[in-house]
Design goal:
Rossmann fold, alpha/beta, single chain, globular, Histone, subunit A, 308 residues
Amino acid sequence: MNDELNSKTLIVVAGPTASGKTAAAIRLAQHYHTVVISADSRQFFREMSIGTAKPTPDELAAAPHYFVNSHSITQPFSVGDFERECIDLLDELFKKHDIVIMAGGSGLYIRAVTEGFDELPTADADIRNRLNTELAVSGITALQERLKQVDPTYYNEVDISNPQRVIRALEVHEATGNPISSYRTAKINKRPFNIIKFGLDMPREQLYDRINQRVDTMVKDGLLEEVAALKPYREYNALNTVGYSELFDFFDGKTDMDTAIDKIKQNTRRFAKRQLTWFRKDKEIIWMNAGDEKLIDNMRAEITEPNT
């Protein structure tokens, strides 16, 4: 990229959950008078707010946001759908803005927009049904162990507490003989805009403390009530995720409240670790200390003077 922004640029703000991506993205958007695209695979859904740590109404008012409350959990919405819709959106946004901000912790969705995403093999109903039966009879642990054996790369990156992600990966492997991670290594699709990627990080204990505090705040803000209202939709993939599945277990009488909350904290910390594993493999990411008072100034320096 040249010292002067003489073409369109997508600025990505990535990192683990609770690292401050939303706040940083909004401050960048305000400075550059632009908008924020969410790359969080659950913030798309209108029905899920507290458990997904969506931007607050004040944050949404501070900068225009896209792909927040944009879909219903009853609508199928894949990473391929996100790629297509986001690229079309960027085409329109770049007519008005030289810079657009993308923020989120869903590495696969960010990769889809910045590099392109290989189409996965069509689902095999027989294999999926058998794997779902195994899940119902024996639980997720055995499926997780099988995924670890056949695709350790994906195992170390995906949220393995999400049964649909685990089943989809095993389904691809059984149908093709290839690990699902191999479908992310094809040639990169060159985008007609510049891309600058930032990663926010902080000391591990500090991050874990922020995660624990965030979960406590979610509970105070009504997470239980939100999950209870979503019980009729619990079979949808979006709800088979951290913060929701643990409370479904509570409502089913499988665990007590304190244990469910502790599991949410534990599973969120594990998920953050996997997010960091994913993003650290991207050598284009410029890592920033999320707690630095000059964070935004440091980002701006990289945006305007990347070669210095």
